[in-house]
Each structure stands twice: as C-alpha cells, then as structure tokens.
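Deliverable D5.2: sample structural annotation.
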Amino acid sequence: MFRTDNDDVDQHVSTTLPVGEEVARLLRVAHERYRNLDDGAVADYIPALAKVDPKLFGISACSLDGETSDVGDATVPFGIESTSKAFVYALVTNALGHDAVKDKIGVNNTGMPFNSVMAIELHEGSPRNPMVNAGAIATTALMPGASPDEQWTAILAGLSAFAGRQLVMDDDIYESEMRTNQRNLALARLLQSYGRLDNDPQEMVDIYTRQCSLRVTAHDLAVMGATLAGGGVNPVTREKVVSPQVCRDTLAVIATSGMYERSGEWLFEIGIPAKSGVGGGIVAITPGKGAVGTFSPPLDEAGNSVRGQYAIAYLSRAAGLNVFASAARDGLRDHRAPKL
C-alpha cells in the first residue's frame, strides 16, 4: 500500500501554486528525496514499456500563469498511456454534454483493477467510469466523427491542444500494444454485447491504443493538467480547449477513480485529483492553482508510478496543494457551545 513518508514535512495551506525559485526549489527537493527509491517494477506486460530505463525520473509544475519549472528527466518523452483517459473524457464531455456522457459511461469507482472484466459483469455491462480501460474505450467511441479516422483526428487535435504542442504517436509502443491487447478487445466486445458500444470493437480499440501511444513528457502533463485547473484554458498558448464545467466534471472523476483501486487512499492521504498511466506518468491537478506532472517508470501493483506518488505527496504537503486542507482564521470568536 502507498505510504506518504512525509511525516517530517510541515503541512501548509496555500491558495496559490508557489512561483519562481520557490517552486523550483521544492521540485529539486522532491527529486533529490526520491530519485534513488527503487520500489516498483516497469510494465513488462507491454514489451515496448519493458525496455524503458527504470532510473528515469522527472518532475514538472505549471501555474495558471503558464510559468513552468522542470527538474530531472522532465523533458524525456514516454507513452501517455492511461493518463490520456482524463483528457479524452474532457474532450468527449465538451462535445456531448454532462448528462449524455454520465449516463453512457458512469462515474463510480469499480474498486477493481483497471482492466477488470468482472467489474463489467457485476454491473450489467456498465463500464462504471471513464478512468478504467472499459470505460475509456467506451468514451473514445463517443468522440464525434463520421469515421474512425475522423474520430482519431479529433482526439489527436484535442490532446495536442491540451499540451500546447503537436503530439505524435510512438509507433513502437502502438505496435507493441496492438500485439498484446487481447484483453482490451475482449472488454470492447463485452461492452458491445451489453449494448454499451455502438461502434466496431476492433476499430475502437485501435483508436484507444493510438491515444495511449502518444509521446508526452512530464512537462506536457503539467501543462495539460494546468489547463484543467484553469477552467479549460491552456496557460501557455491561452487557447480555450474545454469549458469550465467540463473541467469540473473531469476533475471530479479523476479524484474518485484516477489512481484505480488506490484512488480513495490517494485522495485521503494526498488530497489532489491525479491520473496515472502505466508508462510511468502521473498528472496531479489542484483546481485554481496549477498542476504537477511526473515521470518515473517503476509502478506499484495498481499501476501507479511509485516515485511519482512520493514526489507529489511531498509537494502536496510542502506547497499546500491539498484541496481539502484549510486553516483556522485568526481573530474569530469561539462559537462552541458553553459547558452546562
């Protein structure tokens, strides 16, 4: 189970993301504290990911003003993998609306692994939420477009807008995953059998695999997350990507399901909506403040980057990013009932 290991860090409450040298200093401290941590293992069930250097570790932060700070391997590209689920969900919700996507996909945590078949069977074919594989495939299938090619073009354009630059697909990761994604295809066919997937399962799994194979960096994830933190406006390009209402919906789903079956523990201990991916990336988003992106390939049993979790846990406490944290206001009268 994930441990915070931050008892020696004072808990702060902040209404803004630290800026300039202060945030850069905190990132350096987090990187130094956990760069030699060797817990976890790379995702070796995907051959292309098994070859990634487990020592790579980068952290990036982005404020709503577009100010970014990077440390370590923050500009090393890697496969976005499941972290893409959050941003595709935002794009689809922006296109179709709150109710349409909620009714089709759901918003409740499964409490089971991200690729669980049982979760679908136990809930009459409902994928339950868009952060697990079944829900993500169903969400991808909802992207407007007259053909799979048009759907993919829209997804690529939307994710690139979130990142503020043109993203490209990693062919090695795509081909590797297409050779080993029989379970995802089975999930898609199971969804189709329950009437939850109207499109061709093979084509939708292909698009989903493409979106997961896009190359990003920890810096990209920080910018993408800050776009959700700032009402849907990319803080670097100033382009409006999605609406503020979509950001609210997306962050709520990320908070409850973004770290898979560890989501409740993560939110309780760290208090920041976050989404991970088996490529080693995590994006953690504090609404109204900004976002942190991390990259480190070794994962825990749930598929979340180990070093990334520790780094974000440290930053949550040291920089006051916990969305549930508050402090008593000075000078207020004590309103407790008098003793009888």
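Annotation notes: The two ends are 46 Å apart (CA to CA). The CA atoms of residues 89 and 101 lie 9 Å apart.
The annotation will be released with the project's public dataset once the embargo ends.
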